[in-house]
Amino acid sequence: MKIDTHQHYWHYRAEDFPWISDGMSALQHDCLPGDVEGALRLAGIDGVVAVQARVTPQETDFLLQMAAQHPQVLGVVGWIDLLSAEMDGSLERWCAHPALKGFRHILQDEPQVQDWVATPGVQRGLAALQKRELVYDVLVFDQQLPSALALCARHADHWLVLDHVGKPALRDWARSNEVACHWRRNLGQLAALPHVMCKLSGLVTEAHQAPGSALSHSDEKKIWACFDHALEVFGPQRLMYGSDWPVCQLISPYDAVHGLAQTWAHSTLSAAEQAAFWSGNAIRCYGLDLPATPL
Fold first, then answer.
1. 3-286: which CATH topology?
2. Nearest to 193 by CA among 227, 225, 145, 241
């Protein structure tokens, strides 16, 4: 069984997605579950987790609607304002939907990540989510990993998930070994927290910046090296597959992203470890209910 733990969906309006720049024409249109369903079927994917892409409460409603309409969407990681006085009411409403599994904030875009994670209101809000056994996905760049560590160390009552292996700056690795060393060291410190899982996702856009051209073998080797290090520090029971579709399409189509993960998993993991990586860890972390029939 295979579960893709990181997909985004949207009806595109430029004002809703400030992170989609003018150079990202591949993303400047509607991206919905039906648009990727054929690629999922060819890759043998049985279900997906939909993850927020907008910083608005309407994002959670939209993703829950997608889950209600598309049985392959097994779980939703929405957005919630941790500082809102209305947070409890929003949680009561959203938690009535069985697909709601957690929340995420685009933390990487905060001007002062260290200050944001230390905000008392954020601490209270995240503690409230963990009391409800809701997962929180953590999205940061590699230089922000120390702040992610501070956040995750304070909240150990439920799963936290590091997206995109902490977004290592793979494009800079050839110029500076120090960049790679910092990422490896920081990732190891985060992995020492047993309640943190890690998604092997989102790396094609960190390795390559030439839309329309294929990844080089050198790019692929960097990505596999990241997967190897994540396996070394997290172990096979805390890694999950994610495609980051449709963002991955800035560089690679779905089959290429899945192929990178599949080549690595087949060559590196035992049969039992592959089962954990492709689905078991996601089911355990997000509490997913399995689809009645495959895609």
1. TIM Barrel (3.20.20)
2. 145
